[in-house]
Amino acid sequence: MTIQSETPAGDLSRLRIDRDAPRRRPWLAWTVLALVVAAGVAIYPTARAYVAERRAPEVDVAHATRVAAAGEGAEALPVLVATGYVVARHSSDVGVKSGGRIARLKFEEGTRVRQGAVIAEIEHADIEAQLEAARRAVAEAEAQLAQTIAARDEDERALERQRALAKDGITTTAALTSAQAAAAVAAARVKSSEAAIASARARVRVAEEALENTNVRAPFDGVVIKKRAEVGETVSPFGVAGQATREGGAIATIADLGELEVQTEVSENSVAKLAPAMPAEVKLQAYQDQVYQGRLRQIFPSADRAKSIVEVRVTILNADAHVKPEMTASVTFQEQNVRGQTPDKSAESVPVILVPKRAVTEQNGQPLVWVIAGGTASRRPVTLGADRLDQVEVRSGVATGDTVIINPPAGLTDHALVRVKGT
Question: Is-above-0.70 flag for pTM?
Fold first, then answer.
């Protein structure tokens, strides 16, 4: 097979050099490569730092704060927080003394009552009838007494006549003896009538007391905060079956709203932080922006061993119309200035530095915190003071304004890079 070329073997015209074609520049590629290498060398430290920073653990932080613990202008440091309910120091479930059907109620919720005022009445027609009968019995006994007195006087006069006749020897001994016996019987009848009158008058007083017991009176000045019965209901001093809400025959709850307090419970482990007359701040769940001043009035002398708590009462010093019994309230107990005494205006404030408890860790029995400076974490041994709710006093090792790590991650080393969350 023969292959024929379209180009003649002797045609060398196509092998000439084209003088008009652009010349190649090999140094340009080397220049670009050099620039890329230089740029990489320049940004490498920054990129490396950026990558290292992105790989650094994220942490939550807080700032060490400084407050004044004593002296004029000192802040009240919180010691303990407890929750409870508003109650009236003087409160009573007012009940009836005698059972019966309620005939009249003179109150509603919110009614102000005075001590001794009748607030309810029990039906008492039968007792009034008994009282009337007792009074008539007194009148009858008094009339009977008048008759017996008259008969006694007549018998005494007859006895005197018999004695006079006996001296003259006109009458017999039997007649004199009979007159003496009649006079003695008449005197006894008088005494019996007098006793009957006393008994009848006593029955009158019993009926009057029974009638008074049908009136329910307010035990003290106060406000009706709960109505527990209605007209027509049957009540009893011991309660009525099926009426559990009126145990003991209570028909109303009266409270003295002039002295309100918070009834709360404190763990046994925290009772030692409290002291009599300790100041406190009270906040109602319904009015979170309103702060009321309080004072610890009483720490109950016994504890509840089943719950390991002790009941505490805190008086609200500046309660207003917003404060109502049975409202939920929180109490923040505060440290007393100069141990409960009035602060000395000439005394200087003692600075106290506080950090969150979650910022404190322990290593080899030594408490420490991690402080961030320049993006790195530094370990700081500290000396701790008293607890302040979720914070703790730091007496040494931390300065005001230092940024401390909350819940430091495990494996954190000194001078390690860290990132603050949210930045």
Answer: no
